[in-house]
Amino acid sequence: MGSADSKLNFRKAVIQLTTKTQPVEATDDAFWDQFWADTATSVQDVFALVPAAEIRAVREESPSNLATLCYKAVEKLVQGAESGCHSEKEKQIVLNCSRLLTRVLPYIFEDPDWRGFFWSTVPGAGRAGGEGDDENARPLAESLLLAVADLLFCPDFTVQSHRRSTDSAEDVHSLDSCEYIWEAGVGFAHSPQPNYIHDVNRMELLKLLLTCFSEAMYLPPAPDGGGTNPWVQFFCSTENRHALPLFTSLLNTVCAYDPVGYGIPYNHLLFSDYREPLVEEAAQVLIVTLDHDSATSTSPTVDGTTTGTAMDDTDPPGPENLFVNYLSRIHREEDFQFILKGIARLLSNPLLQTYLPNSTKKIQFHQELLVLFWKLCDFNKKFLFFVLKSSDVLDILVPILYFLNDARADHSRVGLMHIGVFILLLLSGERNFGVRLNKPYSVRVPMDIPVFTGTHADLLIVVFHKIITSGHQRLQPLFDCLLTIVVNVSPYLKSLSMVAANKLLHLLEAFSTTWFLFSAAQNHHLVFFLLEAFNNIIQYQFDGNSNLVYAIIRKRSVFHQLANLPTDPPAIHKALQRRRRAPEPLSRTGSQEGASMEGSHPAAPAEPGTLKTSLVATPGIDKLTEKSQVSEDGTLRSLEPTSQQSSADSSPATEEPDQAWREQRRLSSVSASGQWNPTSEWVLSWKSKLPLQTIMRLLQVLVPQVEKICIDKGLTDESEILRFLQHGTLVGLLPVPHPILIRKYQANSGTAMWFRTYMWGVIYLRNVDPPVWYDTDVKLFEIQRV
């Protein structure tokens, strides 16, 4: 039968279903088989031939027929999984049912009255034959998920058969799926022969699995992080005997993927890469199964023991979700190396494009990879320490900085900006990250930033400066995070370049103008962060940082202005008047931009009409992080008040956001129009805590000496002054060094909810062929056009 005929017959069946007013019996196989038995329809055909309006019409007008259709389609998948799909006909039925369910499920989730349908044990259709089998007591959702899991390890359908032609077919029930893992890597050494048909079949089933999990999109975001997703919860439980091999297959498929085309440039132009869609689908299924709020559950503890298996089994039992559990227990160095190298290779892929355009296939799933990397670091502390143990972490840092810089002007990529910054915040809580940043930066990825010679720390500062001064308004909530990262790494930065030093001072200059300080309740925190970073560098890394010291001396007026900040009402009023005339938050004046790198393109805004999904607000920096103090021996001690005691005893140098908020409410008046009104008391309350002592002492000692050199030698040449500063010392002249404060990321349900909306938004927008969720009534986020 030709493909046109089979499409026609399939369409006829759909029309019959939508026009029948009477329930069709589940036993009427002649009717139901039309949907899957003799058709060869692609998933695109199914989407075209089953219009949304008709699915909704059946749902409203003959619900029992929609229920029977779902029940019969699941029944066919269960039968296929039981028999092992040996004939072509069985394989075709399984694929057709899988596509049909992928089409229909979002419309079931969309309607709250139907949401329990898949979890009921007696489908509306009643069971055919009515035999009292135990299996019959399973909710439909469970039968569906177990069938899909079995089908993902079905010899000659989704995995290579191990039997010789003389053997009888492998028994699906006794088959050990751990011997059929899809790709070498974690816990599996054998790399199966690539097989196009198997990849395509796996992809269809993973698409169905993702659609099952997508019920989360139809529930509004919950402030407490929301409950667990019942589909994910069941699929990742001990009920699924394939949980371990499937987790490993997904992880290895993603991390082993090499889009370059086996190392030969331009190879991808000769061979179409059928692996990429599977890798992308695997990455999406993986991050969804790992959607787990670590703030509310006990996460496995870390100890240094090593056992012979890929999963560390010495830890106490971790979360119920086996995927999270397995991820948190990976512990072998070679496994970490494989995962890190794989993710770094894929994240760097878009950067390779810029050296040899089109030499490699450009992958599009970097956002899913960043979520996966985040989950790995968040759930597996041994992995985090491994990443920071060598300079390999820089292979993650550079692509993230590239994405941040590239997306800074694009409203549709706010989510990407956030996740990049969150990952850097998480890494910056560890001393080793700051130490690694001292490695010279020689890779010249074309980026729209000033040219500089220096380290990875310089690159980070130059990119952050660019985001703050030339990103769009929606990024302002990230400024606190960006500067917290700078403070966290500052005690370890051995030598900043002149370009980076000037950028930091330009930020201080911009943030300490009176109108900026007075125009919002928490703008002054940014000045506190920058001063804290300068203090750390002066106290702990003075010797190599003559460029920064010189920049501070040149811009000394900024520090004097801060020390003499006006606090009287007329001056405050005048500063705010000035603001109404100059609404631009940060000017580029005073920052010598310099030429951008060769071959770079300016960061572009989104094309008009680009779709984006809304995101929930992220918690403030005080909720995102907890303060720790670095002791003499390098260990961290948490400074968070254990009981809700007043935080007045926290050191005066660090004006903390939560404390500041309480102060502000007391000291400022918010006028009836909701307009922010700074008062003298409010300004005084934080001005007195500005940590200026160290810098003022430095200026007091060095400025006269520098001025003397200039007068004596008639110097206008900075190299002589820099030479003097390089050899100078302030030993014994500065105040006693303050303890180093690190603000470490802490898990919280606010970020867990943010990750959920971000991740599903990415998945929604990236699945366009077929458009699984388009035009359905999702509740987790809004779809907006730029």
UniProtKB/TrEMBL annotation:
Composition bias, kind Polar residues: at what positions?
640-653
Where is the region Disordered?
295-315, 570-611, 626-675
* InterPro entries with a match to the protein in the record: Hid-1/Ecm30
State the GO CC annotations: Golgi medial cisterna; Golgi trans cisterna; membrane
Q: Where is the composition biased (Low complexity)?
A: 295-311
Protein name as annotated: Protein HID1 isoform X2
**What is the organism field in this record?**
Zalophus californianus
The organism's taxonomic lineage, starting at the top: Eukaryota, Metazoa, Chordata, Craniata, Vertebrata
Q: Which gene encodes it?
A: HID1
